[in-house]
Amino acid sequence: MRGALGGSGVLLRRLREVMAAPVSPQERLDRLVVLIAGNLVAEVCSVYVLREDGSLELYATEGLNREAVHHTTMRAGEGLVGLIASEAEPIALSDAQSHPAFSYRPETGEEIYRSFLGVPILRGGAVMGVLVIQNRASRIYSEDETESLQTTAMIMAEMIAAGGLKALSRPGAAIGLERPIHGVGTTLADGVGLGYAVLHEPRVAITDLIAEDPAFEVSRLEAAIAQMRVAIDELIERGDVAHTGEHRDVLETFRMFAHDQGWLRRMREAVMTGLTAEAAVERVQSDTRAKMQRQTDPYLRERLHDLDDLANRLLRTLVGKPNGVAREQLPENAILIARSMGPAALLDYDRAHLRGLVLEEGGPTSHIAIVARALGIPAVGEIANATALIEAGDAVIVDGQAGEVQIRPQPDVENAYKDKARLRARKQEQFRKLKTQPAVTKDGVGISLQINAGLLVDLPNLDETNAGGIGLFRTELQFMVAQHMPTTAEQQTLYGAVLAAANGRPVTFRTLDIGGDKVLPYMERVEEENPALGWRAIRIGLDKPRLLRAQVRALLRAGAGYDMKIMLPMIATVNEFLRARLIVRRELAVLERDGRPAPSSLQLGVMVEVPSLLFELPEIAREADFLSVGTNDLMQFLFAADRENRRVSERFDPLCAAGLRALRAIVDHADKAGCPVTVCGEMGGKPIEALALIALGYRSFSMSAASVGPVKAMLRALDAGKARQRLDAWLAASDGAASLRPLLSALAAEMKVPV
């Protein structure tokens, strides 16, 4: 090769000239392979493009038989070209034909060429094709030559992505860039949504790929790296981590990677091949992504996310865009695509335009899933590499019921889902017709159905579902979407508006349940090994009594003239409840001392979600005015299974004997003490789980608005007495089965109960 650095610069400048020339796509591609072969002193240069069926088609060649263009194809993994595509790694061979993966294609005439150098054409870590050079003589290709070919491949990737080769594809052999993809993940929120992709963290569009002055581009890269390092250091040192929506531990990782000399050296080398600083960052990260996606080690795959975030931060610094999420105008039917999101981030979007949510992470009991269900947005999590596979504007279908995602679906698939959406709409209409019907079982047992809420926009659901009230109002959502700590007056305004909108129906306000994955943007994040088991909810309130007192004061003032219900989360011992109750009573005394109007009545309840409370049930049922079972955390802690960890989150079924016996103990002790008890966790909103809970003796439930219809349809067909007899017998004769779900499903079928 002619002077590695000088040669690359000359090659890239000539490539730019060819790409700007007013010629047909095929002629442009033919000129490019001639140019590449000449610059790299190769007798053959060939371009293979990935088709939607996963095969690789020869699109252009210099040196091989021209008649083979658009006729020679390699199946996925076939030959050296297929191997490069599957491994996303370059291959350099001095004797290609001796390699076990070599596949001879007589129509190409390549049998006379011994040396082989091939590199994947990558964009965003996804393989789009393969670029190959060959020589007759046996030779060892240098690292500089490999680097130069990789740089050229990046330019080709952008050309393919821009649609420059669309016109060359034959019917039934479309380029893989637009191939339909079927992803299977985990259901987060039920429903079917059809629309167009909107990236939660949009990729930075790189318009200039080829540098005029490599030395200047190196200086730009160095300056951006220095600026990024300073910004990260400042964020960490200030403790203002959440200001940009990123957690401190991520930023600590950023800081480590931002000083990684190997990563930085590869970017500098990419610039010296003739790329702009932005293109160099994109190329290095694309190579890294392709390699790490193929790792089986979960730790290494997780580090890919860190590097992606860092590369995006660096790109935004280079192009002068602010780091963080740009809130652009949503299309009419938006499907939001993200690696992960917090509940507050989802609430930032206009829900009127959101039709679905696709996440690379997030389990069914995560808080983002709970919020999505509350908003009625179909959501699917655990879709591997979603942010790389999906481009902004792609057609996407989210099937929250099946936990599937269709990316760029074929017309027949799209039509099938449109039919499914229409069928679901008809079913929802049937549920709406039940709105005026009483929530009474077949044998005359009355059931109270209430909804969960967290913001004013949730309140119309009360009338839409004809629910009996709000069994859980998540007060933390107001804190999470605010840019500063809400004042007592601001809190009072919200709580007063909620009570007014309820129009006499009961509202149960839960005090702040922050900590864990629910971080306030203006509070310093506390680093913890196990945040779900750490400093959160009532523990923060008792350690920072001013925070709890301010909220209680706002609630009591807002509740003037109303029947007020306040619920305390994460109570682990009766003593914690007594301490919190003392704070509430003191605030009530202050209210009366100041001559302010007080609530007509005040009930103080407890969330039963920490297993230790199961062993103090008689005492807590005697002291509290009511109990509310938070099944999400209770089951997480009961089975020691992190609900955010897919490996274990679904390992244990709450409908097993252990889970059901724990739930039965709660309702039995509550009944003995004459203490009202309700279920406000996710179990109560699922028909089969609600059936089991009714059989245990529960008569009050709070759930997402979307769940009210299906649960009411179930209970109106249920014989609660018969279900109780069966469940008691099964629990008494438990044989250690993993779950009673099959037996409960069979019972539902027997009684013709829709579940």
Could you explain how this protein is built, in words?
It is a single chain. It contains 27 helices and 22 strands. The protein has 755 residues and is an alpha/beta fold. It has four domains: 4-177, GAF domain (Beta-Lactamase), CATH 3.30.450.40; 181-202 and 330-410, Glucose Oxidase, domain 1; 214-319, PtsI, HPr-binding domain (Enzyme I, Chain A, domain 2), CATH 1.10.274.10; 443-707 and 720-750, TIM Barrel (Alpha-Beta Barrel), CATH 3.20.20. The strands form three sheets. It has an eight-stranded mixed β-sheet. 46% of the residues are buried. Mean pLDDT is 85; it is low at 1-6, 239-248 and 323-327.
List keywords for this structure.
755 residues, alpha/beta, Beta-Lactamase, Glucose Oxidase, domain 1, Enzyme I, Chain A, domain 2, 8-stranded mixed sheet, 8-stranded parallel sheet, 27 helices, 45% helix, 15% strand, elongated
List the helices and strands and how they pair.
Layout: H1 4-20, H2 25-39, E1 44-50, E2 56-62, E3 73-74, H3 79-87, E4 91-93, E5 115-123, E6 126-135, H4 143-161, E7 181-184, E8 186-189, E9 192-199, H5 214-238, H6 248-258, H7 261-272, H8 277-293, H9 298-319, E10 334-338, H10 343-347, E11 354-359, H11 367-375, E12 379-381, H12 386-389, E13 395-399, E14 404-407, H13 411-433, E15 448-453, H14 460-465, E16 470-474, H15 476-481, H16 488-502, E17 507-510, H17 538-543, H18 545-558, E18 563-568, H19 574-593, E19 601-608, H20 617-623, E20 626-629, H21 631-638, H22 646-649, H23 657-673, E21 677-679, H24 687-696, E22 700-703, H25 705-716, H26 720-732, H27 741-750
Parallel strand pairs: 9-10, 10-11, 11-12, 15-16, 15-22, 16-17, 17-18, 18-19, 19-20, 20-21
Antiparallel strand pairs: 1-2, 1-6, 2-3, 4-5, 5-6, 7-14, 8-12, 9-13, 13-14
